[in-house]
TrEMBL record:
GO biological process: regulation of canonical NF-kappaB signal transduction
Boundaries of every MATH domain copy: 1-132
GO cellular component: cytoplasmic side of plasma membrane
InterPro entries per record: MATH/TRAF_dom, TRAF-like, TRAF1-6_MATH_dom
Gene3D superfamilies assigned: Apoptosis, Tumor Necrosis Factor Receptor Associated Protein 2, Chain A (2.60.210.10)
GO molecular function: tumor necrosis factor receptor binding
Protein name: MATH domain-containing protein
Length: 333
């Protein structure tokens, strides 16, 4: 029906953010809307007029996150977020039954869900979660929050998120590589200095995100930023390596990563010790942050190789660069 345009969109049932909260629903265009028509699935958020509105804050200005669930054990969910434009009528107090829908026109390339055996549709059913972030949840916790069993009561999920946030806050700062303490770092992209955070770096640069946005606009570099103003990236799309400097080893624990320019960028990560591959992982990256947990112990070298993908039409550049931040490691004693 969507392809023939007999029915271009469907609405979810209305739901509330809390018993006395905002009333809302989702609107889904399977075959895309506007400039995303016939190329992407479009997903939008709609505020609905309710009896609670007189006591609520408007304009609505809370971050909204959509999650399309991967229904296999791989759990490669599609996650994207947007922050409301508070000047838009979509986020003012509703004066009619519903406000105009607003959200993410290019939520997912149609080719992903048109592939036979894709993990997002099973038995003609897909599951989409909408999360309204009232507490300004740090993006490093977003993937964790959306990986929780959706069948758990909401207060249990919130307690688990809080516990995870406390656990991560206990990480020693010298184990968290943020690229924000590089001596003499300025506006321009430069090579990571050898010895930074105890590693020799190969084909590794750092970037000032504020300056890059002024010059090139928003990109996946901005999406990867988790703290401060700087991220790491692979120079010119080449294989990036981090090599322990001293005669010891380290544990690669976790990182935040995003594709800079290309949708569906492939990133292969290998951990080596004694000259042999010890661990490996293959990821498909989008222009949105992913928190990746490794816990690979006793490493001497980690290589990051990226390739493939298709240029995202919403950004200026193209290529196989990726960006990463809050790289967490633990050195052997």
């Amino acid at each position: 029906d969507a392809q023939s345009e007999r029915q271009t969109s469907i609405y979810s049932p209305p739901f509330y953010s809390s018993p006395n909260g905002y009333k809302m629903r989702a609107r889904l265009y399977f075959n895309g809307d506007g400039n995303a028509r016939r190329t992407h699935m479009s997903l939008f958020f709609v505020l609905i007029r309710s009896l609670n509105d007189p006591i609520l804050k408007f304009p609505f200005n809370y971050k909204v996150t959509f999650c399309l669930y991967d229904q296999t054990s791989a759990q490669r969910h599609i996650i994207d977020s947007f922050r409301p434009d508070i000047k838009s009528s979509s986020f003012q107090r509703p004066q009619s039954d519903m406000n105009i829908a607003s959200g993410i026109p290019k939520f997912l390339p149609l080719e992903v869900i048109q592939q036979e055996g894709n993990p997002y549709i099973r038995d003609d059913t897909m599951f989409i979660k909408i999360m309204v972030d009232f507490e300004d949840l740090h993006k490093t916790l977003l993937s964790y929050a959306l990986s929780l069993n959706p069948g758990l009561p909401m207060h249990i999920q919130q307690a688990m998120i809080k516990q995870e946030a406390e656990r991560r806050s206990q990480l020693r700062s010298d184990e968290l590589i943020t690229f924000d303490n590089i001596p003499g770092a300025g506006r321009f992209q430069q090579s990571l200095p050898n010895g930074y955070s105890g590693f020799q770096w190969v084909n590794a640069n750092y970037m000032n995100i504020s300056y890059n946005e002024q010059v090139n606009g928003w990109s996946g570099y901005s999406a990867a930023l988790s703290s401060g103003q700087y991220v790491g990236l692979n120079k010119d799309g080449q294989m990036l390596s981090m090599i322990i400097n001293a005669a010891r080893s380290f544990t690669l624990k976790s990182m935040i990563v995003a594709s800079a320019w290309n949708d569906n960028l492939i990133l292969e990560i290998t951990g080596k010790r004694g000259g042999s591959v010890f661990k490996s992982k293959r990821l498909t990256l989008q222009l949105q942050p992913q928190w990746i947990e490794f816990n690979w112990p006793d490493l001497e070298i980690v290589n990051f190789s990226s390739y493939g993908g298709e240029p995202n039409s919403d950004v200026k550049g193209k290529g196989t660069q990726f960006a990463f931040d809050n790289l967490c490691v633990e050195f052997s004693k």
